[in-house]
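Async update (no meeting this week)

Hi team, since we skipped the sync, here's where things stand on the single-chain job. The sequence we agreed to prioritize is pasted below, unchanged from the tracker. I ran it this morning and attached the output directly underneath so nobody has to dig for it. Comments welcome in thread, and please keep replies under the output.
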Amino acid sequence: GVCALHYSIMPKVPRMQKKNSEFASNVTKRGVVPESRKAKQSGYTVGPVLLGFFLFVVVGSAIVQIVRTVASGNPLA
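Output:
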């Protein structure tokens, strides 16, 4: 019933004590934590190929628009 559900949700006491002791030791270090605790940083969030393709589309679109405007003889406004 209700008691079994209550105990299955609560964390185990030894596990909680271990996590608390790890956290307490990390608090006094102020940024000098092991490499495994630091967030992993990758080189690029967007790959160079995708960035190149995006620039190609944007610049190519601008050039095509300029050529169409000049060829039609209409002002931009």
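Quick observations from my side:
The chain has a mean pLDDT of 76.
The chain has three helices and no strands.
Reply here if anything looks off.
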